[in-house]
Amino acid sequence: MKPSVAVSPKAVQITGGFWKAKQDTVARQVIPYQWKALNDEIPGAEPSHSVENFRIAAGQKKGEYLGMIFQDSDLGKWIEAAAFSLMRTRDPALEASIDELVEVIGKAQQPDGYLETYFSVKAPEKRWTDFAMGHEMYCGGHLIEGAVAYFEATGKRSFLDIMSRYADHLVATFGRGPGQRIAFDGHPEIELALYKLAAATGRNAYRELARFFVDERGRHPEVLDPTKIIAWPYKPDLWNDKDYYQDHLPVREQRTATGHSVRAMYLYTAMADQYRHDNDQTLLPALEALWENVVQSQMYVTGGLGSQATAERFTLDYDLPSDTSYTETCAAIGLVIWAWRMTLANPDSRYADVLERALYNGSLGGISLDGTRYFYVNPLEVVPSVAEYREDLKHVKTSRVEWFGCACCPPNIARTIASFSQYQYSASSDTVWVHQYAEGRAELPVNGGCVVLQQTTEYPWDGRVNFTLGQVPGGEWSLAVRIPDWCEAVHLAVNGSEVDTASRNKGYVMLHRSWKAGDVVELELEMKVQALRSHSRIRETFGKIAIQRGPLVWCAEEADNGPDLHQFLVTVEGARVEAVENLGPGARRLRLSAVRRLVEPSKTAYSTKRPQDTVTEVVLVPYHLWGNRGKGEMRVWLGTKFG
After folding, report:
1. Is 408 a catalytic residue?
2. Is 312 annotated in the active site?
3. In the prediction, which pLDDT does 22 show?
4. How does residue 560 score in pLDDT terms, banded at 50, 70 and 90?
5. pTM above 0.85, yes or no
6. Active-site residue (options: 52, 191, 312, 356)
7. What residues pair up with 522 in beta bridges, in sequence order?
8. For 420-440, what is each residue's pLDDT tens digit?
9. Residues 139, 152, 216, 408: which is the catalytic one?
10. Structural domains in the chain plus CATH codes
11. How far apart are CA 194 and CA 145, in angstroms?
């Protein structure tokens, strides 16, 4: 199958349903709220200092740098979220705020193009000395991505020019040539940004630099030297091992995901970019092996990644505890980004299926319904009284918070929601691929022309999707429709005539014909309530079931079922789907038959007496919606005595 190319987010407009509600919330509430947070204007929230640091670096204010060493990156992601929102609806006031901010960023830039406020304000003599934890290129990468998105949204070049000067500084500083340095950032991100900047500016030198950073990783143990960390004291622990940085082997020799889960996702995305842009086939064996390892052995059912709080990292295959997991929001988002690049390189539903799982569950769980509260960590089991007492659970928040001192996740989920339309479609010369379902209108290039495609659906609550073709190019071409891995039965028809769906190309039904305006494609994906069982090597969840319906993983909450959720044993037989009013537009809940098992002959902890079962029901809500009705227990994996 031919590789496909992304289409501009401006070419796809979400017009209704689930994703319009999410994007409207981002535009109306999240972006203004996060702007206040970045300006330290949220009472009671941890301060960001992000905008303040830029004003100090620009000489507009006096003061000391405050916040984490990577605080600049939050601003880059916020600008990117705002830019994607502007692609939907122009907002002069928002543009004016960004333009004013861009002016400040430009004044903070050094004469040679260098841009990073921690080092400019606090440690100018330490520039380019701490590649392990300095995050200089990581921050620059997020600012570049924000600049590219803002240029695409508005056509304004000021920010793009600033970040191009920064990239020119990198090109002059790093490489294998005379007077250059061999180095790379401990936190991959700049590589992704350089590919986007190359596309926006036409400068191939940026792509070559991204390739250099990927190729040199794992070959120079002196580059990521944790003893040179300047922002906090060095300790020889899991935060500083070579595998934490994915620097333990050259990238082409890596086969097992290890280390910091977000860094891993960004590195694998950079490898995928290099594979697809440069046709670098030498990267494919590593990419395929890493994909299989992550998805088959180290991914949670929600698409979450990172089993351990210490070093926010992968651990061992099938080590997936529910309560002590880290499963950072940014890691799930990183998996979405990597899955998308793999989808573009090789349209295959196994990538789009994982993207969907990580997006609807592990990513969206990081933000509240109103967009003003956030989870950094997304465990699959929470008992507030236990989490608030035990030392090994101190990383778990029992309710979403207003902001974080380390606030990488809130603007990351904002930009992910705002840019959802980029994941829906891709195109090649003779095929349009439909990867994700959402109501909207798209203008897609194919067969030397353009097809206008209108999608109508209530997905993910309902599996019926209709496509109506408006303008169409002449000649024959294919519309490739993904059949998700969770779907056991599917109905597909073109203009009322049923289509055989048994024959699929890597999970896609290829509808090849000479299309005409007014053609209608009807897709119906059966959305059964399904019981998922874990691998027998996953100790914590063996013998339990997780509930899935469509792309959504569901959970039990104390708000519906009372405390002690571990006492329920459930079955999916006879499960009922209901509307629910207090969890957002269109939301559903499930009712499952259950028994509640008690062993309570006395206060003693153990007994030989038989348990007592009481017939009852359990109510489940989508995992990404938990925690919106007050503090309480939550559980994804439930007991079952029904097989």
Report:
1. yes
2. yes
3. 98
4. very high
5. yes
6. 312
7. 466, 493
8. 999 999 999 999 999 999 999
9. 408
10. 48-228 (no CATH), 235-423 (no CATH), 431-470+478-525 (2.60.420), 529-639 (no CATH)
11. 8
